[in-house]
Specification:
This protein is α/β, with parallel strands linked by helices. The protein folds into four domains: 172 residues, 3-Layer(aba) Sandwich (Rossmann fold); 68 residues, no CATH class; 143 residues, Rossmann fold (3-Layer(aba) Sandwich), CATH 3.40.50; 82 residues, no CATH class. The protein is built from 18 helices and 20 strands. The strands form four sheets. Strands 6-7-8-3-9-10 form a six-stranded mixed sheet, with helices on both faces. Strands 16-17-18-13-19-20 form a six-stranded mixed sheet, with helices on both faces. It has a four-stranded antiparallel sheet with strand order 2-1-4-5, covered by helices on one side. Strand 9 and strand 10 form a beta hairpin. Helix 4 crosses helix 5 and helix 14 crosses helix 15. It is globular. Keywords: ATP-binding, Cell membrane, Membrane, Nucleotide-binding, Repeat, Sugar transport, Translocase, Transport. InterPro entries: AAA+_ATPase, ABC_carbohydrate_import_ATPase, ABC_transporter-like_ATP-bd, ABC_transporter-like_CS, P-loop_NTPase. Pfam families: ABC_tran. GO terms for molecular function: ATP binding; ATP hydrolysis activity.
Length: 513
């Protein structure tokens, strides 16, 4: 590896005093960063700090309004994403850029499919190439599988395989572990280290600071579109140092007492439930005011169970009870309006938001029916008064509530997808990967809001692949494996023992089989 401490090292990629302005917004102001050969460089900052804008400049999506990009010490002008790709700059975006109706193999080879208008596609070679790169990631996926049939986490891994297949010298990874379990993250990090040792330079964007400390050599921190630090060595930097650079103050750590709900009324109860998606004999109870964590590896069936509870797919056996009474949920509208169950989707882009509509319309969609008068009439002012406190509490960075949601950063979109359910005042809330793409300060606010929501009596079913988040929030943790419940644990908030207990339950079913 290159000597990263040497000032004479020519960076593979350098941003020198780069600026970018949008109408009414100074996204980047004189930002600098040096990406050294064979290194993993962290790019940190809160949502709206300018990380995504810098990545889009490096990948040719945007042109800078000031400053210079250099590749191997030579100034370059990128005229588009293909220009960046041709120069060996690859990217794995936080928002997946796969074509759902195409197969995994077709997506991985998308940039190389139509090299000549009269040349047919060699699908055998295409699928063999895909198998190679899927194998590098340890993924057992048939390349002929349509992407639409994959879980969000597997889509993320296919996106990484696609970027690797282009043999990029510079690889930009925007929240690559957001939908991965700890086990999958370990495997990914092993791969990234091998790539680094082979000379690939990587820019690693993540809100998980423990990952940054584990994998990264250097760090650049942005705050309000400016450098809080530029290309600083990670040696000697602790979590508190990174947090202070990102938010300008020390992190506030929640230390909530243990709660018990044995005598609380049942808000949601599944007994012997089977579903059209393959769940078998699922028993699960969430009591009023309780936060129950649902943990499992990718493919365990957690998100699929949530969608069956919401009426998106049929429950084929067993019983579902809401507030102690049998519930017949056949549509999502039933779940929301008849049984007051809300669902924060893990896939905000496809399921959680309407990207072409405004912040106000997205945040208010769950309260329209409740707020409308007897004639069915509703004013923006009425909706605004209901949703604005939650938009403000979550610190959504938007010029106004009339801003189109698709124009906001991914993190701010996630805040809105949470805010709409906080405003809805539902009795049961299913939260699926709530903090994906959310910065540290907002994540703490979100945790406080979920805790306050549960304190007010809302039952919460929490699905997250973030083990620290699970152990921070959940009162009780239920483990799922292979579409069945493997067991459950009372949460003692002892991270070491809880993580060991969870992994034991995950593998217990496999051992029994």
């Amino acid at each position: 590896m290159a000597d990263l401490s040497s000032p004479s090292t020519v960076p593979v990629l350098e941003a020198r005093e780069v600026s970018k302005f949008f109408p009414g917004v100074k996204a980047l102001q004189d930002v600098s960063m040096r990406l050294e050969p064979g290194s993993i460089h962290a790019l940190l900052g809160e949502n709206g700090a300018g990380k995504s804008t810098l990545i889009k400049i490096i990948t040719g999506v945007h042109r800078p309004d000031g400053g210079t990009l250099l590749l191997d010490g030579t100034p370059i002008e990128l005229r588009g994403t293909r220009d960046a790709t041709s120069r060996g700059i690859g990217v794995v975006h936080q928002e997946r850029n796969l074509i759902p109706r195409f197969t995994v193999g077709e997506n991985i080879s998308l940039e190389r499919l139509a090299t000549h208008p009269l040349k047919t596609v060699d699908y055998q070679a295409l699928n063999e190439t895909a198998r190679h790169w899927l194998g590098v990631l340890g993924l057992d996926i048939d390349p002929r599988t349509p992407v639409s049939q994959l879980s969000v986490a597997k889509m993320q891994l296919v996106e990484i395989a696609k970027a690797l297949s282009l043999k990029s010298r510079v690889l930009l990874l925007d929240e690559p572990t957001a939908s991965l379990t700890p086990h999958e993250t370990v495997a990914l990090f092993d791969l990234l280290r091998r790539l680094r040792d082979d000379g690939v330079s990587m820019l690693f964007v993540s809100h998980k600071l423990e990952e940054v400390q584990e994998i990264c050599d250097r760090v650049t921190v942005l705050r309000d579109g400016r450098n809080a630090c530029a290309s600083q060595s990670m040696a000697g930097m602790g979590r508190h140092d990174l947090v202070r650079l990102m938010i300008g103050r020390s992190e506030q750590i929640a230390n909530w007492p243990t709660r018990h709900f044995e005598k609380a009324p049942e808000a949601l109860k599944l007994t012997g439930v089977s579903t059209a998606l393959g769940h078998r004999d699922v028993d699960l109870t969430v009591r009023k005011g309780e936060i129950v964590g649902l943990y499992g590896l990718v493919g365990a069936g957690r998100t699929e169970l949530a969608k069956c509870i919401m009426g998106a797919h049929p429950v084929t056996g067993g019983t579902v009870e809401v507030a102690g009474k049998p519930a017949k949920i056949t549509t999502v509208a039933d779940a929301i309006h008849r049984y007051r169950i809300g669902y924060v989707s893990e896939d905000r882009k496809q399921e959680g938001l309407v990207l072409i509509h405004t912040v106000l319309e997205n945040a208010g969609i769950t309260v329209w029916r409740r707020l409308a008068n007897r004639l069915g009439l509703l004013t923006d002012g009425t909706v605004r008064r209901t949703v604005e406190p939650y938009i403000r509490k979550l610190e959504v960075r938007t010029p106004s509530l009339e801003q189109i949601v698709g124009n906001l950063s991914g993190g701010n979109q996630q805040k809105i997808s949470v805010a709409k359910w906080l405003a809805a005042g539902i009795d049961v809330l299913i939260v699926d990967e709530p903090s994906v793409g959310i910065d540290i300060k907002t994540k703490a606010y979100l945790h406080e809001l979920l805790r306050e929501l549960s304190d007010s009596g809302t039952a919460i079913l929490l699905i997250t692949s973030d083990m620290p988040e699970m152990i921070t929030l959940a009162d009780r943790i239920v483990v799922m494996n292979d579409y069945r419940i493997s067991g459950e644990l009372e949460n003692t908030r002892d991270y070491g023992r809880m993580s060991e207990g969870i992994m034991y339950l995950i593998h217990r079913v496999e051992a029994a089989e």
